[in-house]
Design goal:
Length: about 900
Amino acid sequence: MKRRDLFKLAGAAAATISAGVLVAPLFRSTKRGPAADFDPGPQTWPIDYEKARATPTVCFGCTTHCGVIGWVQDGRVRRIAGNPLDPNAEGRFCSKAQGMISYTYYPERLLYPLKRVGKRGEHKWKRISWDDALDEIGAKLKALRDAGTPEQFVFHYGRDKTKGFTKRFTNAFGTPHRLNRRSICSSNRRVPLMSAYGREFEWGTQDFENTKLILNWGCNPMEAFQGGHYMMPRIQKARVDGGARLVTFEVRPSATASVSDEYFPIKPGTDGCVAFAMAQVITQEKLYNESFWNRWANADLAEMTAHLAQYTPEWAEQQSGVPAADIVRLARDFAAAAPACTTLSGRGSAKHYNGEQSDRAIRMLDVLVGNVGKPGGYCLSSLRGWAGRYGQEGLPKLSMPAPKPKGPKPWKPGTREFALLPKDVQERVAAFPDDWQNRYFGELATPSEYPLSWHWYQMRVGQLVYPYIKEGRQKVGVYMSYTLGAAYGYPEANVAREVLLDEELIPFHVAFDIGYGEQTALADIILPDATSLERWDAHGTNSYGLVPYVGLRQPLVKPLGEAREIQLVLRDLARRIGDDMAAHFDFEEVEDFYREWHKNLPISWDEFKRRGIWYDTDRAKDYELYERPVPKTELADATTDETTGIVYTEKRGKKVAIGIMQDGKAVRGFPTPSRKIQIHDDIFQVAAKAVGIDPAEPLASSIPVWFPVPAHAEMADDQLFYTTFKWNVHTQGRSGHLKFQAEIVHDNPIWIHPDTAAKQGLSDGDRVELTVYRPKGHTYRAGEAEPVGSFVQRIKFIHGMQRGVVCTAHHVGHWEHGKVGADTPSRVDAGVDPALADPDIDNNVWWAKSRGGVGSGVHTNDAMPIDPAPLIGGQNWYDNLCRIRKV
Ligand SMILES: Nc1nc2c(c(=O)[nH]1)N[C@H]1C(S)=C(S)[C@@H](COP(=O)(O)OP(=O)(O)OC[C@H]3O[C@@H](n4cnc5c(=O)[nH]c(N)nc54)[C@H](O)[C@@H]3O)O[C@H]1N2
Ligand SMILES: Nc1nc2c(c(=O)[nH]1)N[C@H]1C(S)=C(S)[C@@H](COP(=O)(O)OP(=O)(O)OC[C@H]3O[C@@H](n4cnc5c(=O)[nH]c(N)nc54)[C@H](O)[C@@H]3O)O[C@H]1N2
Ligand code: SF4
Ligand SMILES: [Mo]
């Protein structure tokens, strides 16, 4: 599809960008209920800038974490705007940022510790004091430790920006169970980056501002993505000022596809085909940058050319539906634009059974044309001022204050923990290589069937936590959820709820949150967190301006009610558990901790607070980090391996690689085992063998190869692909109850191409039942015949859809989260404060079903199969096959 065909849609999406507010009447319900004329009275909180106090902080509205400024007047946060000192966001912010205000003054916000008085899940609560709550939790935790079973404390978070604070607690306690949601989110895309570059460089940090051509596989930076907000204006600037082109492969007209110069609808799970075929064109036509490849790739170019020959553009067209002629044209354009060209990929290409291979193929294109680290190319960032990491020379070291606790010991054969593991797991672990055994901490933290989820660092396989607990793979004593909405937002969320409801499996559940949602509803004790406008954190991320920086989240106002920051809560729990723990939490104010953390920055604490951001304005941009010379001081007692050219030094008795010889000079190279970009990586072979997958299977291949998603290869004629997506005004499952955002998007009709609908005799607006099936291949409960689940929703004709694909947004359809999110009155009168009452919410949720509106959407995630990618464990969200039937 070409730009002119998309003109109308593009117009709508462009308005989205410039206004920062969604203007997509196409997708919004306009039917108003009886209360449409309700006047909520003076609901606005005007600012008098003479009187208001401005404080910089960091937004928590989504994973992008922009530097922002909050304006406070008469004790109330009235406005959030961008912090111009942030070199990444450059003063821009988005509509979701105002959601931080909605969160803080949300009428159903939890403000007091609560203890359940009825059965678990019965919504009966009483208010208790912090002392009582902490005494009870502390005693339960202490009992686990006294019994010598600290691992039975499971801390599971969704988002944690405390800079190692919660890890300090779990380490001091002695449990390896600090679980996260990385597999739910992004591990399939992190693995190809870790393998190729040795570090994620947080997604790759493309130099968009100076690029000429962007090939985008399923990334949606115009409305989502980690850093989308940083990328969007840079991409647009390159296009408007520099004539750059943006080409997007997508399954639906996302905001990004809609504004692209070219949008190619693609068959789900076939992104790799297109990338492989482009690599084929580049190698066959010798359009590559041979000297870059020979210097920096760890594979032989002639061998790679021969391997790629099978992936012809015609074959790719058959697989993906993208025309061969376009593949050839774009491959040539890409090579011609080098080095000012770059690939971009997001969860669209990666969240599949074969996503890791697709992303490996996409990354290979950059290496072939030699744009890596070059102006306008696929850059890598030295990241956030954390010293001691790759590319950090000259940056101040920031770290948490001493004494740092050591943390638990690995669960090696012979240990008490090992003896508790199921027999099959023991056998697998006993056969692991030594360095894996040294990193193995049981099935919740380091699932043995998914070793690449923890080979590089702890990504976990979050969606298996609940099934594994159910299967008895790990006994739990105390389970704490923090900023986590698994009971709503994980795949087979019903399994999460079933386990959370079971008092045998989870004897004690503490939920640390700011609102009453599906997860908190299943707790025994709820602790009210301070919102992001009321607390301290530190922040750094990769910078698309290619300058590393750090930001500070600081309170704009005191926590409302009795809400408390997690750092204080963990400190007080540590004091109750024992002196050895308390020693790691010896501070009075949370600020003391972050002041200490900041101490090596060349800026006073007060100045840092005043600016909210620090970076070295004199530092050269992060181009060609790998060519930076190894400093002479480090070379003094270094040795060089004659065959590989790798330069080593000794640190604490261990041989550590610090660079590689190139043309007689020691340069940094990449932090990979070969110090080069790893096109070839044996780790996939090692991992496959370790989990009993035939090393001859394609997914064990050391070099990138194509294989189809097993379920897709056998798809029935009447089946459709089913994908979920993110709206620009919503974040995950945590904004469906925020009134401004919900007013703009509150429903999630099923998008479908009219041709696809016509095949089933369906008309626009028909209600259908959508049923999802279990996947096949090496995955959890593969191929079981029973459908996973279904839901009923109406269809919406969208002409830009890929045929054969249906999709919905996944943010709405809550059944907790009160009047806005779920059209139910608050279920936790005990925890909320009547002073926050908002007549706008009480009387003006015009889309609520109870007011004759369309309602707040349907929940999708009980129908989503738990589907971890082989070896890695990343959830294959976008592989689902479904059927729809008119109801
Ligand atoms: N507004 C907003 N911003 C967010 C978030 C949010 O919830 N809302 N969440 C944040 C988080 S945690 C994350 S992980 C990121 C995610 O950011 P992205 O990776 O950009 O987002 P997704 O929506 O997961 O996936 C991108 C697109 O992939 C498409 N897709 C599905 N299957 C395929 C396929 O087979 N091939 C191709 N080419 N495309 C496909 C979907 O239609 C979707 O539009 O966004 C972050 N930013
Ligand atoms: N169908 C489908 N589902 C998906 C995805 C998908 O592509 N398709 N993608 C998903 C992705 S990318 C991700 S990252 C996960 C996210 O999944 P989660 O990390 O579980 O979820 P969130 O919805 O971000 O937020 C969870 C909880 O955080 C709470 N919260 C918000 N702010 C604060 C705060 O300041 N303090 C505390 N203590 N709590 C707070 C909210 O009230 C909510 O209960 O879910 C995903 N779910
Ligand atoms: S993009 Fe995310 S972090 Fe940035 S202002 Fe918007 S919600 Fe906040
Ligand atoms: Mo995510």
